[in-house]
Inverse folding.
């Protein structure tokens, strides 16, 4: 009888442990679901803010000129962004990029500096800091921020493009060329890297090489309007007027917003 009691006690204890474990995992699952719901709601608020601001992309690589100047919409977007900023820290980077667009530049930069101070290996914060610095005209500091990202993550193509473009903009053409060639070593069919390389070669006075590079971009994507425009510019510099006219015409057929001539 005593043995049966001991077995029964053991089974009851084991049942209690199993029930406790079940409750624990249930609670953790609920917490996970709640966190996902919170983030989903926060992301929806940022999407709404984005729409209110005119759908302007957060990417530094693709820039849309559209911008909503309605003060009520801007105020509503600002409220949404600040609400997400305080309730969902994992979306901080997106919030700060939007705050930057709302001209809260000092606040956004200070927040990124704080994030980097807490985690010097936060490549997203470093890249976004570079984007903001570049937009404020601080190209050397932006390039440094991008370089720090690439030291941590050499295959980060987005940051590689950002750095190469900033180098080109700042007149560091030879460095930009090397940066674009690094990108092409990572992905040989990167049309934007071919286009950027062509721009760097053109700036260095290497017209024939630039033409070949624009042609390489077009061979990958025949609809790449900017590469056709680049081709037109270099053909004009090489004195090949009829071909330049045809290239410019083709670029405008693909993208009517492009100018007929530089």
């Amino acid at each position: 009888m005593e043995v049966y009691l001991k077995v029964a006690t053991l089974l009851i204890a084991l049942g209690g442990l199993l029930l406790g474990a079940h409750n624990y995992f249930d609670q953790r699952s609920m917490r996970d679901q709640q966190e996902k719901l919170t983030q989903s709601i926060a992301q929806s608020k940022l999407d709404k803010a984005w729409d209110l601001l005119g759908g302007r992309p957060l990417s530094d690589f693709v820039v849309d000129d559209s911008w909503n100047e309605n003060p009520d919409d801007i105020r509503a977007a600002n409220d949404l962004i600040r609400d997400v900023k305080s309730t969902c820290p994992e979306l901080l980077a997106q919030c700060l990029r939007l705050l930057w667009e709302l001209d809260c530049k000092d606040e956004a930069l200070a927040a990124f500096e704080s994030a980097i101070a807490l985690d010097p290996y936060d490549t997203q914060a470093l890249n976004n800091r570079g984007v903001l610095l570049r937009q404020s005209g601080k190209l050397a500091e932006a390039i440094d921020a991008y370089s720090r990202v690439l030291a941590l993550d050499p295959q980060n193509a987005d940051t590689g493009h950002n750095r190469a473009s900033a180098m080109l903009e700042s007149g560091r053409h030879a460095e930009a060329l090397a940066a674009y060639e690094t990108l092409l070593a990572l992905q040989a069919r990167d049309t934007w890297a071919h286009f950027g390389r062509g721009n760097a070669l053109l700036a260095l006075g290497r017209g024939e090489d630039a033409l070949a590079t624009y042609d390489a971009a077009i061979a990958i994507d025949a609809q790449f309007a900017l590469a056709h425009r680049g081709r037109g510019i270099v053909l004009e510099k090489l004195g090949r007027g009829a071909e330049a006219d045809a290239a410019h015409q083709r670029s405008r057929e693909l993208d009517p917003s492009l100018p007929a001539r530089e």
In short: Confidence is low (pLDDT under 50) at residues 57-68. The chain is about 75% helix and 0% strand.
